[in-house]
From TrEMBL:
<feature type="transmembrane region" description="Helical">
    <location>
        <begin position="213"/>
        <end position="236"/>
    </location>
</feature>
<feature type="transmembrane region" description="Helical">
    <location>
        <begin position="140"/>
        <end position="162"/>
    </location>
</feature>
<dbReference type="GO" id="GO:0016020">
    <property type="term" value="C:membrane"/>
</dbReference>
<feature type="transmembrane region" description="Helical">
    <location>
        <begin position="174"/>
        <end position="193"/>
    </location>
</feature>
<dbReference type="InterPro" id="IPR004031">
    <property type="entry name" value="PMP22/EMP/MP20/Claudin"/>
</dbReference>
<feature type="transmembrane region" description="Helical">
    <location>
        <begin position="12"/>
        <end position="31"/>
    </location>
</feature>
<protein>
    <submittedName>
        <fullName>Claudin domain-containing protein 1</fullName>
    </submittedName>
</protein>
<keyword id="KW-1133">Transmembrane helix</keyword>
<keyword id="KW-0472">Membrane</keyword>
<dbReference type="InterPro" id="IPR042356">
    <property type="entry name" value="CLDN1"/>
</dbReference>
<keyword id="KW-0812">Transmembrane</keyword>
<dbReference type="Pfam" id="PF13903">
    <property type="entry name" value="Claudin_2"/>
</dbReference>
Length: 252
């Protein structure tokens, strides 16, 4: 009896830890999707130079012809759903040396997410770049697939609690493992897409680019999903094995 209680406590602890890891990874994934700091551009130019160029950059940024070249000319961020730039509030000749900066964002529409990428960024006549096109589409779809798998896994977990059985926890673990693969794929697609873009369109000398904290949240989410998956599967399989052995022992 005490041995059975000890086993139950061990499984319960594993499941609690797995649930906590699953919850944290879900929060990280949702925050990652909803924020705009996947990649950040920082200009190294003096403030007065930024002020002089601010109006022309802003006009180009909000135009319908805006492309991937626009938000690399000044301070800005790119997310999965929006792109943002930081420009001076006033771009007149009498602007102060240290102008007040304001951040403005433009959202990607659903058609923008599935729009073709071109061999020469910004040149519609250069043909379709299939690699970048499908990488962009995958980086948009994969996070939602990952979240969907985790939510479905959570529903199965609730059913397992209601049935007072650990067997469905295997399905929950498998779904979390698949979610982790999707998140890992998302990170890989995003990095590959950025690298291909910068190979075709190198950053200006006065602009520095780096991955932002939204990207880091997605990176952290993947291993959490894998750890949760491992704990769910371990608890279910070990419990089933020990239950079978205990049953065989009683019969004997």
């Amino acid at each position: 009896s005490s041995k059975g209680t000890m086993m139950d406590n061990r499984f319960a602890t594993a499941l609690v830890i797995a649930c906590v890891l699953s919850l944290i990874s879900t929060i990280y994934m949702a925050a990652s999707i909803g924020t705009d700091f996947w990649y950040e551009y920082h200009t190294l130019s003096p403030a007065e130079n930024v002020s002089e160029a601010g109006r022309s950059i802003w006009d180009e940024f909000v135009s319908e012809e805006a492309d991937e070249k626009t938000y690399k000319k000044c301070n800005g961020t790119v997310g999965l759903w929006r792109r943002c730039i930081t420009v001076p509030k006033n771009s007149h000749w009498y602007s102060p040396p240290e102008p007040d900066m304001t951040t403005s964002c433009i959202s990607f529409s659903l058609s923008d997410q599935f729009m073709e990428k071109y061999v020469e960024p910004g040149n519609h006549n250069s043909g379709t770049d299939l690699n970048r096109t499908y990488l962009w589409r995958l980086q948009f779809l994969l996070p939602f697939v990952s979240l969907g798998l985790m939510c479905f896994g959570a529903l199965i977990g609730l059913c397992a609690c209601a049935c007072r059985s650990l067997y469905p926890a295997i399905a929950t673990g498998v779904l979390h493992f698949l979610a982790g693969l999707c998140t890992l794929g998302l990170v890989g697609c995003y990095v590959a897409g950025i690298e291909l873009l910068h190979k075709k369109l190198p950053l200006p000398d006065d602009v520095r680019g780096e991955f932002g904290w939204s990207f880091c949240l997605a990176c952290v989410s993947a291993p959490l999903q894998f750890m949760a998956a491992a704990l769910f599967i371990w608890a279910a399989r070990t419990n089933r094995k020990e239950f079978t052995l205990l049953k065989a022992y009683r019969v004997a």
